Amino acid sequence: MTGPFNLRAAVLFLTAAGLLTVYFRHEKDRLERKKIADMSKGIGRPLIGGPFVLKDTDGAEWTEEKLKGGFTLVYFGFTHCPDICPEELDKMAHVISRINKTPPNFTAPPPSTITEPQNRPNLLPLFITCDPARDTPDVLRSYLAEFHPSLVGLTGDYEQIKEMCKQYRVYFSTPEGVKPGMDYLVDHSIYFFLMDPEGDFIEAIGRQHTPDAAAELISGHMSDWKKGLRLY
């Protein structure tokens, strides 16, 4: 009986060790997410995010209140961007499809109604233009449709865009002396901003995150929230 007993004990020991390893790895990841979320909070107000007034591609007004009620992923860019924005929007599309389980040939609700409870996806994706002079509603609608049907484009006048960029600590700059019809590039920060269901900032996701890594990170924060483990 010694041999079988020792074998059984060894199997049980290895199984328990494996389960403990998985648990502690999961807990380590959760605590790391919590640490990042804790650092994202300011004293009395979030460091990133705040009031804004913009319009979607249907002309409907959006404010920070529309971000509440679910998770939101915010990205700042411009449609004439030659490479970085398309790459990051491809990443965003991958994340959206994975988290929202978007089926083939999916038709998204109109931007003006997408935040209604019956329409709101698990993760709401927003694209904020840094180039309102060229990114009209029609331009935004056509451009974003190439990446994912759920992407909502927001625009406004220059001062409104400048104010929202300030709220989100986003740097952007257009060349001086630009005239209508001229081609130019807009220099801007390259981050996705994950906002929680209360409209508060959780974490910034940069170019170093692969699409799968970004999806895993966001899913982890969403899971923590649902389990009541968010201590921030």
Strand and helix map with partners:
Blueprint: H1 2-39, E1 53-56, E2 61-63, E3 71-77, H2 84-100, E4 123-129, H3 137-144, E5 152-155, H4 158-167, E6 172-173, E7 187-188, E8 192-195, E9 201-205, H5 211-226
Parallel strand pairs: 3-4, 4-5
Antiparallel strand pairs: 1-2, 1-5, 3-8, 6-7, 8-9
Helix pairs in contact: 1-5, 2-5
Distance between the termini: 54 Å
Give the spatial strand order of the biggest sheet.
Answer: 2-1-5-4-3-8-9
**What integer is the average pLDDT?**
84
Q: Give start-end ranges of low-pLDDT stretches.
A: none
Sheet-strand content, in percent, reads 15-25%
Give the overall shape.
elongated
- Structural category is alpha+beta
Number of helices: 5
Could you characterize what this model shows?
The chain is of the alpha+beta class. 38% of the residues lie in helices and 16% in strands. It has helices spanning 2-39, 84-100, 137-144, 158-167, 211-226; strands at 53-56, 61-63, 71-77, 123-129, 152-155, 172-173, 187-188, 192-195, 201-205. It has a seven-stranded mixed beta sheet with strand order 2-1-5-4-3-8-9. α2 (84-100) links the parallel β3 and β4 (123-129). α2 crosses α5 (211-226).
How would you concisely characterize the structure shown here?
The chain has 232 residues and is of the alpha+beta class. It has helices at 2-39, 84-100, 137-144, 158-167, 211-226, and strands spanning 53-56, 61-63, 71-77, 123-129, 152-155, 172-173, 187-188, 192-195, 201-205.
